[in-house]
Amino acid sequence: MLGPRVLSSVRQGLSRGLSRNVGVRTSGEGRKVDIAGIYPPVTTPFTATAEVDYGKLEENLRKLGTFPFRGFVVQGSNGEFPFLTSSDRLEVVSRVRQAMPKDKLLLAGSGCESTQATVEMTVSMAQVGADAAMVVTPCYYRGHMNSAALIHHYTKVADLSPIPVVLYTVPANTGLDLPVDAVVTLSQHPNIIGIKDSGGDVTRIGLMIHKTRRQDFQVLAGSAGFLLASYAVGGVGGVCALANVLGAQVCQLERLCLTGQWEDAQKLQHRLIEPNTAVTRRFGIPGLKKTMDWFGYYGGPCRAPLQELSPDEEEALRMDFTNNGWL
């Protein structure tokens, strides 16, 4: 049961969210929001004293705004959201909303461990300008997060959210994959519009697309490393960390796939695999932020306990980009 404080917040959020004309609500024909396209998952820049650097955040957004992205993901894994306070999370989303181009979508990570906290955060994200909420699987009690528990969680969040909900599964960080049967059930909810799948299992992605084909439900790849493969089985785009540094190239790969230029797409995809692995599985957010510094953005430090790369790691990171012709 949700408490009075949460229900009051929900009612306020519904009123504000439904009154905002953000151009991404369902159309007169009843279609859900179209989230097809490429999204960089925006990093959270910090000062040397570990405070959020809003000036650098806005500076990065101005540069990223020159690329043909569909929008931005804020407070995903690359935004270091587990290390931020609730007020930090909301302020970052608010600042991004103000700084980003008006024709772009803002997908905000609102996942928390409890359903009640997730509902409250989702309503708050809507109030500060998010167009859709990206909700990661709760995972602390992962042994109990079976299909029934996750369906109940996401259904309650979607029922009470004033903005559309995108499911988010990232097993490398959570140790938990949202089961395909749960995705199929949740795809039927009128306020659940798609999923970001960062697991990299193209067989699973293809199966999800096949089993949700009768629903108005879209699948985004959670990494540039399998973007081509995802498009080949019916995916509609990607949330790609690599787009923070190679935005033009990731958007080019999207165009090649959409226009059926598969040979050129394959060649480009091959050159993106090692750099993508470097800024995701291999060196993670510290690697991504270091690379951003090289490419004219502000990466800066991470919040503790994440540590900066060692000199050997930095050199290995550089070689992954140099060997593929990007540095």
From TrEMBL:
The active site is at 168 (proton donor/acceptor), 196 (schiff-base intermediate with substrate). CDD domains: DHDPS-like. The lineage of its organism: Eukaryota, Metazoa, Chordata, Craniata, Vertebrata. Its main location: mitochondrion. Catalyzes the final step in the metabolic pathway of hydroxyproline. The keyword Mitochondrion applies. InterPro entries: Aldolase_TIM, DapA-like. One of its GO terms (cellular component) is mitochondrion. Its EC number is 4.1.3.16. It is found in: Mitochondrion. Pfam families: DHDPS. It catalyses: (4R)-4-hydroxy-2-oxoglutarate = glyoxylate + pyruvate; (4S)-4-hydroxy-2-oxoglutarate = glyoxylate + pyruvate. Pyruvate binds at residue 239. Keywords: Lyase, Mitochondrion, Schiff base, Transit peptide. The gene is HOGA1. This is 4-hydroxy-2-oxoglutarate aldolase, mitochondrial.
